[in-house]
Design goal:
Belongs to the DNA mismatch repair MutS family. This protein is of the alpha/beta class. The chain contains 36 helices and 31 strands. The longest helix has 33 residues.
Length: 1101
């Protein structure tokens, strides 16, 4: 039961209409009330004002006590109509006009108002005339008194001074008390079975979703049914708004019990008690307290802000449309004035699972680490300190973050806490090194300790702490102790896929921002939500260790050999709820009872499923998978312990967790009290029956279908004579009359209070039940983690199984330098196409490590580059590869420079973007790396571009020594590097018809050099007029001859510049020149051997 009016000394004879003024808390609803549920459904339909016609109305029989209006109501209009919206707070127009509009819009409904109700409405209109808008809304200021045009204005707060509260009703005080802390948040206020929005929030609901706007005294209002809150909250979130939920924390009976208990503790005078009933004034001390501080003496149903939702801090999975992690990121930057390089502190939060990741990034000139991090997580919300982020950082983030990402700025120090302030606030929850060992608090998590010496990381964490505190989530999330150190590059632990590679290779998203055709979409076939999140981490960080890769491949083979295991696991995993998120909500004590029962049932099913799989798979058949099953924790006793403590009670649409009989003392005591009172009521009925001389079936207790307080009315035949001194008639029909007496009212009151005690006891029991579940939180999370790992392995096995032939298990060789050897390799997204041309790809080992790739546009060069990178990623993830053979040594990183694009937000031209990416590759690549450079140098003049491309190719093949493809249209490069032993010249095969100017692309990688880029042939295929193509052919031939002649006149030696550079490097090495020194002895030897081989080749030539 949810009700809001204080219980008076008399039980009401009549129930008030839902159409009465919403400002009062006097209507009651009952969960068992079918009539009220129907009314709620009708209300839900009526709040939408875009219906094609007037709402259906039931016929109402008029009573003679109703007043008729002076003029007839207007005829219904077939056009859409709604009450005219009130002016915004900043408007200075028309109080009288607004009152007139309200009178006109209400005229039709006045037919059903009594004279007293009409006078009440007139009083409201009179009040409206005197004060149309709250004075603090005319020129809003934030809590610090700053106006909206102030650069430091805080849109989250609203200044309401002490004197503004004096003329407010108790409910207005309650609303604005909370709203002043959340001025930029749409607050849903619970009133009975509805959630209502007021003032600016109501305007938003009306403007965005056409909710029917209703005018109240000083307050505009729209409302939605309680059972539709999740739907409407999701709609507001999708539109980019913050959403807050303010819930009733007690019923009207509970309020009466509370106020009576408070009054019994006081010995105040009659004057003080009268003032408390009217409502205590708000003091300056009150204004310093938080939004959920209850104003003493204000007699109104207590409400508290339960949650605040933003797209980045959603904690309830019901509001999330995706199973992927939902990230909010706090970012703090420091720029070194001497180098111009940036360092970053980062805090990443997935509020739905309660996971914090802390990071400290020392970045390069193009902020590679920062870009990689944001491409990996794609946050929904970004928090930053005002005036902290540099222009370059802002431009980068604007370029790579989705347009839907919310940006929230905060005051530095005051809201983005300093390192010391962050640690001081953490000391309220955790035991710091300076605290005594017997503090009783948990030890500070290791991840925070590891980052405590990084001020930037702790300041970013401080900004996140401030934000979640304002969301009312601080304690719930911080006490989960789920902290990690995040390393976006993961040096030495896994293959590095930086932001450029993730983007160019379309690992997580395609070039349109979606997932279609990406590696994630092709390989991720998990059944559980937590498995899907873990698989994403596996994909962005493939393995490097040969043993770990082979162990994962062994597990895939074992699963492929046992398809029944995959099928059984998938069947039960698909039915699992998002346990990871639900365990987090249980820790916060905020999970719905129905969902808690689902969690317990899910873990019970998991235990049974794991036992079945353990008996199905033997260690001999599946060593790796059996090892995972053996490591699964024994959750059976813990599940059975919980199941013995509670049972479920369901009635119609209600679901309630109650303790097993006599399992909870408080509930048992409250139930005993109810049983005693019900026995007293039956004795009262029997005693009254005897005194009235009625038969047993002629006298009974009657209960309203709406429940609430209209219960246990004594129903007797209408002909029964009842003493008016003792009995007060409440209701009746032609055949029966219903009465209360003072004794009966006392018993009913006692019963209502006992039921309220039982309700409170049940809530306490459920809270203790969740706390008991949370004691084993580490056990539940371990089980979830192992389930996710098994789900990911099955996903890899299923992706391998669904792959078309030829396919193979990759073979790995542990080697100090990387090499790859694929036969009949195909792109994984094209595996099912029979017309796709496979290719052999070999780099390193017995062949040169760098391939100089030529060929015309559309010949398949970019596809070849992408499918090679995809093959490496899939192999090191532990998946089968779409090739007939795959032998490789693990690659430590994949780096790419592909495509021609500029970066408007970063103020960088196409050529500048090319050089930034190229410089990063030259700095970071090594003998274990795989690099792709596609058409480097095309963003500038021909000669400059060719010179840069040649120099980069020479440096990579001679000194950096990664595996790689260097795709180009510069034909002269193929001549310059004929001598180089580490460069292999290959091209995409084509068939050319010069007469028809047609090119047939054969998409086959073959040795040699493409005879031309055939640009004019492609122009013909594109429909360029033949005259233009002919002229282009002629100009191209002239340019080619002139270019060769120019090179011939400039060359002063038979050796190319590159060859002379190699000889010069050897001379410097002999002289021990510092330019030839490198920190890695193994790489230095490899580099020297390569230069010597190149010089020997020169001598031969």
């Amino acid at each position: 039961m949810i009700s809001q009016k204080p219980l008076q000394s008399k039980l009401p004879a009549k129930r008030k209409s839902l159409q009465n003024d919403s400002d009062s808390d006097d209507f009651m609803l009952d969960l068992d009330d079918d009539v009220m549920m129907e009314a709620a459904d009708e209300y839900e339909a009526s709040v939408m004002s875009d219906s094609p016609g007037p709402p259906l109305a039931k016929s109402v029989k008029r009573s003679k006590g109703f007043a008729q209006p002076a003029k007839s109501a207007p005829k219904p209009s077939t056009s859409l109509s709604r009450p005219p919206p009130r002016p915004f707070a900043s408007s200075s127009k028309g109080g009288s006009r607004a009152a007139s509009d309200r009178s006109d819009s209400r005229a039709g409904s006045d037919v059903f108002l009594t004279l007293a109700e009409l006078r009440k409405e007139e009083d409201k209109d009179a009040k409206k005339e005197g004060g149309e808008v709250f004075p603090f809304l005319k020129k809003p200021r934030d809590a610090q008194g700053r106006y909206e045009d102030d650069p430091d204005y805080d849109k989250r707060t609203l200044l309401i001074e002490e004197h503004h509260f004096k003329d407010m009703t108790p409910f207005e005080k309650q609303f604005w008390w909370i709203k002043r802390w959340y001025y930029d948040t749409v607050l849903f206020f619970q009133k009975g079975y509805f959630y209502e929005l007021y003032e600016n929030d109501a305007e938003i609901g009306h403007r965005e979703f056409d909710l029917k706007l209703t005018s109240r005294v000083k307050m505009k209002m729209v409302g939605v049914p309680e059972q539709q809150f999740e739907i409407w909250a999701a709609k507001f979130l999708a539109a980019g708004y913050k959403v807050g939920r303010v819930d009733q924390k007690e019923t009207a009976i509970g309020m009466d019990m509370r106020t009576q208990k408070d009054a019994s503790k006081k010995t105040a005078s009659t004057e003080t008690n009268a003032k408390a009933v009217k409502g205590k004034e708000v003091t300056g001390r009150d204004l310093l307290r938080g939004p959920n501080h209850h104003l003493d003496g204000v007699k109104i149903v207590q409400r508290e802000l339960s949650e605040v939702f933003t797209n980045g801090t959603i904690v309830d999975g019901a509001y999330l449309a995706s199973d992927e992690s939902n990230h909010c990121v706090a970012l703090k930057e420091s720029v070194d004035p001497s180098t111009g390089l940036s360092n970053f502190g980062v805090c990443i939060l997935d509020a739905s699972t309660g996971v914090f990741d802390l990071a400290y990034l020392e970045d390069d000139i193009v902020n590679t680490n920062l870009e990689t991090l944001f491409r990996q997580i794609r946050p929904k919300e970004l928090l930053y300190a005002k005036s902290n982020l540099s222009v370059n950082t802002q431009r980068l983030l604007r370029a790579i973050l989705p347009a839907s990402t919310l940006w929230e700025s905060f005051q530095n120090v005051d809201q983005f806490y300093t390192r010391d302030e962050t640690l001081r606030r953490l000391a309220e929850t955790y035991q710091l090194a300076s605290d005594p060992d017997n503090s009783g608090k948990p030890i500070l998590p290791e991840a925070i300790q590891a980052m405590s010496h990084r001020p930037l990381a702790m300041e970013a964490f401080g900004g996140m702490m401030y934000y979640i505190e304002t969301m009312n989530l601080g304690n719930d999330l911080l006490t989960q102790k789920n902290f990690n150190v995040y390393d976006p590059i993961r040096q030495g632990k896994s293959m590095i896929l930086d932001g450029h590679t993730l983007n160019h290779m379309e690992v997580l998203t395609n070039n349109e921002g979606g997932e279609e055709g990406t590696l994630l979409a092709l390989l991720q076939q998990c059944s559980s939500p937590f498995g899907k999140r873990l698989f994403r981490h596996w994909l962005i960080a493939p393995l490097r260790d040969v043993k770990m890769i082979n162990d994962r491949l062994d597990a895939v083979d074992e699963l492929l050999a046992n398809p029944g295991v995959m099928g059984d696991f998938t069947l039960f995993a698909k039915k699992l709820p998002d346990l990871e998120r639900m365990v987090s909500r249980i820790h916060a004590g905020a999970l719905k009872q129905r969902d808690f029962d689902k969690v317990v049932a899910a873990f019970s099913n998991i235990k049974e499923a794991m036992d079945r799989l353990s008996t199905t798979i033997t260690p001999q058949d599946a060593r790796t998978v059996h090892g995972i099953l053996r490591a699964f924790p024994d959750i059976g006793p813990h599940v059975r312990k919980l199941e013995k403590k509670y049972t479920v009670k369901t009635e119609k649409s209600t679901f309630e967790i109650i303790p097993q009989e006599r399992a909870d003392e408080d509930c048992s005591a409250a139930q005993d009290e109810i049983d005693t009172i019900k026995t007293d009521l039956e004795e009262f009925r029997e005693k009254t029956r005897r005194s009235l001389g009625l038969s047993s079936d002629a006298i009974k207790f009657w209960h309203s279908a709406q429940g609430g307080r209209e219960i246990y009315q004594l129903e007797v035949p209408s002909s029964t004579k009842m003493s008016s001194d003792r009995w007060i008639k409440q209701s009746g029909t032609q055949k029966v009359s219903r009465y209360y007496s003072e004794d009966l009212k006392r018993l009913v009151r006692e019963l209502l209070e006992a039921q309220e005690k039982l309700s409170t006891a049940k809530q306490g029991f459920y809270g203790r039940l969740m706390a008991e579940f949370d004691q084993d939180r580490d056990l539940w999370l371990k089980a979830i983690k192992l389930l996710a790992e098994l789900d990911c392995l099955i996903s890899l096995a299923r992706a391998s199984h669904n792959m078309d032939e030829p396919k193979c298990r990759p073979t790995f060789v542990d080697s100090p330098v990387a090499f790859i050897d694929f036969e009949d390799l195909r792109h994984p997204s094209m595996c099912l196409r029979s017309d796709f041309i496979p290719n052999n790809v070999q780099l390193g080992g017995n062949v040169p490590r760098t391939t100089l790739l030529t060929g015309p546009n559309m010949a398949g060069k970019s596809t070849l580059l992408r499918m090679t990178a995809a093959g490496i990623i899939m192999a090191q993830m532990g998946c089968y590869v779409p090739a007939s053979k795959a032998v490789l040594s693990p690659v430590d990183k994949i780096q790419t420079r592909m495509g021609a694009y500029d970066n408007m937000f970063a103020a960088a031209s196409t050529f500048k973007v090319e050089l930034d990416e190229c410089a990063r590759i030259l700095r970071e690549a090594g003998p274990r790396s795989f690099v792709i450079l596609d058409e480097l140098g095309r963003g500038t003049s021909t000669f400059d571009g060719m010179a840069i491309a040649g120099a980069v190719l020479h440096h990579l093949a001679t000194h950096t020594l990664p595996l790689g493809f260097f795709a180009t249209h510069y034909g002269s490069l193929t001549d310059d590097y004929t001598y180089h032993p580490n460069i292999r010249r290959m091209h995409m095969k084509t068939h050319v018809d010069d007469e028809q100017h047609q090119v047939v692309f054969l998409y086959k990688l073959v040795p040699g050099v493409a005879e031309s880029s055939h640009g004019t042939h492609v122009a013909t295929m594109a429909g360029v007029p033949s005259a233009v193509v002919s002229r282009a052919d002629q100009v191209s031939a002239e340019f080619f001859e002139a270019f060769k002649a120019k090179l011939a006149t400039r060359r002063q030696s038979s050796l190319s510049v590159e060859a002379r550079s190699d000889i010069a490097w050897l001379i410097k090495l002999a002289l021990n020149d510092s330019e030839t020194q490198t920190g890695n002895a193994e790489q230095a030897q490899f580099e020297m051997d390569m230069v010597r081989a190149a010089s020997d080749k020169i001598v031969e030539i």
